[in-house]
Amino acid sequence: MTTKHYTYSILKYKHSPLLDESINIGVLIFFEETKRFHFNYSKNLSRIKYIYPNVPEKTIREYLKQIDRKLTQFNLDFGFFTDNELENLSDFISKYVLPIDGTILQFSAFRRGLQNNFSESVIENTIVKKHIIEDIRLNNNQPQEPKLVSTLFQNLKEFGLNDISYKPDIFQQDYTLINKLGTEFKFDLAWQNGTYNLVKSIGFDLKGSKSIADKAYKYFGQFYDLENEAQEKKLRYDLLVGKPTQKALFKEYDHALELLKKNNHVEVIEEQDLKKYSVKVINAISEHLEN
């Protein structure tokens, strides 16, 4: 009896070549007996967009479509390829599907397994469910960031924001910072107090400790990259952070705050301190206008 094997690889998204982190975005499976590829990938990219606000979504989608088209064509006409070419799938994929050249999408090393008596569809579903999470959902299915920003503005209005006549260089909503490479970084607002304080909301009410760690390291890397801009333009990055609702994640949350605070240009404001922070903003604006 012929033993059936399958070989599979995980397609990973790597946001930055400097950070050794990645997100599973797709699964490629090759069934050796039928010589058929199966490719399944994330359709909405919500996990990536949630962790990386500046993700090149159009580029990723184009890569995924090209990979899918090529593999579909291979399934229709495998007579073009020799058995020798298909023996080393890593080389085959690099040559015909996705070159190993440091792009944002990369296939992991291939793994081989026994199909046993399971159908190809069962193998497909098992591997996809094991390695691909279609999206990230918070416990209340609502992202924290809009709530943090809304609460901040409610407090600012409560303490007299609407009664102050200010200019954009003193107080500005939806501020965009552009670094020397031309990359844009979005902030919820900016206000003047000796330094120009750029406010960014970050929610940590995620499903697991790894998601919290991934998000913390992502922002730590981002603000590390923006240190030159902070020094040259006298900027400070004020981070409004939301706490997890699960007590089991509090330890990882505390570690995330410690990591973010390592940057001298970052100030962390937790949700319970938003009122105090709002008073500070209003007083600074008012004092600046008086002078």
Automatic annotation (TrEMBL):
Domain of life: Bacteria
A Pfam family reported for this protein in Swiss-Prot or TrEMBL: DUF3037
Record's protein name: DUF3037 domain-containing protein
Organism this protein belongs to: Flavobacterium circumlabens
Taxonomic path: Bacteria, Pseudomonadati, Bacteroidota, Flavobacteriia, Flavobacteriales
